[in-house]
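Sequence, please.
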C-alpha cells in the first residue's frame, strides 16, 4: 500500500524569538564612548513523517521465526529481504532548536584638526545552538527486538542493548512497550564565535578647484571560530545491524577557525564643478588589502565615476574587484549524511549511457535518497569583476519625481557551489559523467550520492534595475509611491565536470529543485500619512519561469503578493499597526521538479493570508 509520508509535515514551523538590545553613549570631552549589548533567543521546531523502516537483510537485520515477532512461520534474512513501512506508533519526528546569540561591543569616536573624524570599535559575538531530534529509532535495539531478544550469535558485548529488551513485531502496529524500547532522542550542539576590531579615520586631504579631496583609511582584524558536536550515539558504529545505530543521519564533527587582517584606503576626487554641461564630475578610488590565515593575501580595487552634466541628471559608472573566502562550514564541515528528493532517470530507462549495470526491471522505490556531503579543504576563494553603469534623474517639471536606471554585470570565477544530487544523477544517466559519485546495490537502488562544495569554474550574471519615486501633499495627507523593477538578462553557469569538460547553462527564466530564476521581479509600495494616521499598500511580483520535466518544458506562471497595513501614532510614544499579508491568500505555484514538497520553498511564500497586530513604544 502507498502512503503519503508528507501528510502533517510542517511547511513553515513554529518559531518564537525573544531579544534584548541596549546601547550606551557617554561623552568624555571631545571623545564619545559607545557600548552596546545584544541577546537573542530563538526556539523553533519542524515536524516530519514517522521514521521509515531501515530493515534490510543486506544491513544485517533478521526477523526470526518466533510468533512474538513473526506470524508467518519462516525466518526472514539474507541480502534480498527488505521491509518497508512507516512506524506510525513511534510518533512524528519533531526536531527542536534552541539558538542563542550574544554580542558585546564598545568603541570610541572623536574629531581631530576640525575636519577629520576617527572611530574605533571592538566586538565579541557568539552563537550557540542546541538541537533535539525526537521520535527517532535505535536500530540496534530494533534489530535485537526482531531477533526476539536473542543475543546468541552476536559478536561483542551488547548487554546494555539487551537491558529491557522487548520483542518487536513490525507486521502489526507497535505496542507502547515496543515504542518505549526502540524510541531514541538525539542531542546535537554547535557554536560559532567572532572577535572583530576596526579603526577608521576620514577627512579632507587637499583642496582642488572643484572641491576638497576626501579620504578614508582603516584597518580591521577578525577572528572566526566554529564547532559542531553531533550526538555520540548517532555517530557510534552499529553493533547488531551493519547500517547505522539510529534512524538519525550520522555526521562527523566540525571544528575550524581562521583570522583575517585588512587595511583599506578610499579617495573621492572632485575633477570639475559649476561648469557648462559639467555641474559636477568626481572620481572615486578604493583599495582593500586582505590577509587570510587560510589563503594568504589579496588586494582588491574599485574605480568609480560620478558625472552630473546638469542639476537634474547624474550619470554613474563603477568597476570593482570582489573576493569571497570559503566559510568555516564550506572548508571544515565534517562529513554528514542527509536526504534529497530525486527522480532517477535509470528507473524509467535502464538503457541510458550511464545506467550500465542497472537491471532492466529496476523501479525507484522512494524519491528520498541518501546523500553524503561535507566540507572541502581544497576550496579556493571566489573572485569577481563587477561592472555597473547607471543614471539618476530628478524631474524639474514634476516636483518630487525621480527615477534611476542601472545596468550591472558580475563575473565570478571559482564559484563555490554543489553539483546537486539530481544534477549528478542526470549527468551520469544521460552523459555518463560524474557516475563515480553514485553508489547502487545489485537491484539498482541508490544507496548514496556523494556531493559537497566545489569550485565550479565561473558564473556570469547581468541585468537591469529600474527604481522610481514620487510623492505629493494634499489637504487630506501626504502620499508617496515607490516602484522597483528588475530584469535578469543572463545567469550563466560554466561548470567543470569530473572528467574535465565544461558545461555551459543559461539559467535565466528557468526553475529547478529549490531554485528559481525569473527574468522579471518587481515591487510597488504606496504610503499615506495624515496627522497620526498612516496606511501602506505593498505589492511583490515574481515573474514566470520554465522547468524541465522528463526533457519537456513546463511553464510556471507568475505570482503576485498583496500586503496592506494601517497604523496610528499616539502622543505618548505608543504606536499601533494592524496589517494583512498575502491579502489574496495566494498559494505557491506547483512545481514538478520540486519532488515531495511540490513547490520552490526558497522563492515563494508558503504562508497563506494572515493578520498581525504590532505595538511599539519608544522611550
Amino acid at each position: 500500500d502507498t502512503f503519503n509520508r508528507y501528510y502533517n509535515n510542517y511547511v513553515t514551523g513554529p518559531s518564537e524569538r525573544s531579544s534584548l538590545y541596549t546601547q550606551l553613549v557617554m561623552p568624555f570631552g571631545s571623545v564619545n564612548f559607545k557600548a552596546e549589548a545584544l541577546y537573542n533567543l530563538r526556539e523553533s521546531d519542524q515536524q516530519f513523517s514517522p521514521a521509515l523502516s531501515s530493515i534490510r537483510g543486506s544491513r544485517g537485520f533478521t526477523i526470526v521465526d518466533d510468533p512474538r515477532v513473526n506470524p508467518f512461520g519462516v525466518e526472514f534474512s539474507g541480502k534480498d529481504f527488505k521491509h518497508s513501512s512507516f512506524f506510525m506508533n513511534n510518533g512524528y519526528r519533531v526536531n527542536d532548536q534552541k539558538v542563542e546569540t550574544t554580542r558585546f561591543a564598545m568603541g570610541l569616536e572623536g574629531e581631530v584638526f576640525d575636519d577629520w573624524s576617527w572611530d574605533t570599535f571592538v566586538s565579541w559575538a557568539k552563537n550557540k545552538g542546541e538541537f533535539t531530534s525526537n521520535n527517532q529509532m535505535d536500530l540496534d535495539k530494533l534489530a535485537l527486538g526482531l531477533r526476539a531478544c536473542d543475543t546468541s550469535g552476536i559478536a561483542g558485548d551488547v548487554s546494555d542493548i539487551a537491558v529491557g529488551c522487548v520483542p518487536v513485531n513490525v507486521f502489526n502496529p507497535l505496542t507502547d512497550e515496543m515504542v518505549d524500547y526502540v524510541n531514541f532522542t538525539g542531542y546535537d550542539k554547535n557554536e560559532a564565535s567572532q572577535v572583530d576590531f576596526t579603526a577608521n579615520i576620514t577627512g579632507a586631504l587637499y583642496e582642488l578647484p572643484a572641491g576638497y579631496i576626501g579620504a578614508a583609511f582603516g584597518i580591521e582584524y577578525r577572528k572566526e571560530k566554529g564547532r559542531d558536536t553531533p550526538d555520540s550515539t548517532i555517530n557510534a558504529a552499529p553493533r547488531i545491524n551493519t547500517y547505522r545505530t539510529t534512524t538519525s543521519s550520522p555526521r562527523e564533527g566540525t571544528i575550524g577557525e581562521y583570522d583575517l587582517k585588512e587595511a583599506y584606503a578610499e579617495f573621492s576626487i572632485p575633477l570639475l564643478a559649476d561648469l557648462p554641461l559639467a555641474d559636477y564630475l568626481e572620481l572615486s578610488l578604493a583599495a582593500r588589502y586582505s590577509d587570510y590565515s587560510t589563503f594568504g593575501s589579496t588586494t582588491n580595487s574599485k574605480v568609480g565615476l560620478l558625472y552630473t552634466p546638469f542639476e537634474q541628471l547624474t550619470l554613474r559608472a563603477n568597476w570593482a574587484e570582489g573576493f569571497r573566502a570559503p566559510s568555516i562550514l564550506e572548508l571544515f564541515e565534517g562529513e554528514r549524511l542527509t536526504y534529497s528528493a530525486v527522480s532517477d532517470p535509470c528507473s524509467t530507462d535502464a538503457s541510458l549511457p550511464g545506467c550500465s549495470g542497472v537491471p532492466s526491471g529496476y523501479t525507484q522505490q522512494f524519491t528520498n535518497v541518501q546523500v553524503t556531503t561535507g566540507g572541502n579543504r581544497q576550496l579556493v576563494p571566489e573572485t569577481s569583476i563587477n561592472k555597473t553603469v547607471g543614471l539618476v534623474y530628478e524631474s524639474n517639471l514634476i516636483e518630487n519625481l525621480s527615477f534611476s536606471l542601472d545596468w550591472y554585470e558580475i563575473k565570478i570565477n571559482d564559484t563555490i557551489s554543489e553539483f546537486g544530487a539530481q544534477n549528478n544523477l542526470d549527468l551520469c544517466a544521460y552523459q555518463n559523467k560524474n557516475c563515480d559519485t553514485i553508489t547502487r546495490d545489485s537491484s539498482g537502488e541508490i544507496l548514496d550520492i556523494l556531493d559537497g562544495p566545489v569550485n565550479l569554474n565561473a558564473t556570469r550574471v547581468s541585468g537591469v534595475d529600474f527604481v522610481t519615486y514620487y510623492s505629493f501633499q494634499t489637504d487630506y495627507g501626504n502620499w508617496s509611491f515607490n516602484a522597483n523593477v528588475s530584469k535578469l538578462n543572463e545567469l550563466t553557469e560554466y561548470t567543470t565536470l569530473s572528467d574535465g569538460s565544461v558545461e555551459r547553462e543559461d539559467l535565466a527564466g528557468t526553475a529547478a529543485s529549490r531554485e528559481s530564476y525569473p527574468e522579471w521581479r518587481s515591487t510597488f509600495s504606496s504610503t499615506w500619512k495624515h496627522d497620526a494616521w498612516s496606511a501602506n499598500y505593498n505589492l511583490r511580483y515574481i515573474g514566470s519561469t520554465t522547468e524541465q520535466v522528463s526533457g519537456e518544458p513546463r511553464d510556471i506562471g507568475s505570482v503576485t503578493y498583496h500586503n496592506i497595513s494601517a497604523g496610528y501614532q499616539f502622543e505618548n510614544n505608543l504606536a499601533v499597526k494592524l496589517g494583512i499579508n498575502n491579502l489574496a491568500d495566494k498559494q505557491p505555484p506547483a512545481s514538478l521538479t520540486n519532488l515531495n514538497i511540490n513547490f520552490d520553498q526558497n522563492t515563494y511564500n508558503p504562508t497563506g493570508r494572515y493578520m498581525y497586530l504590532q505595538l511599539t513604544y519608544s522611550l
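The chain is about 5% helix and 55% strand.
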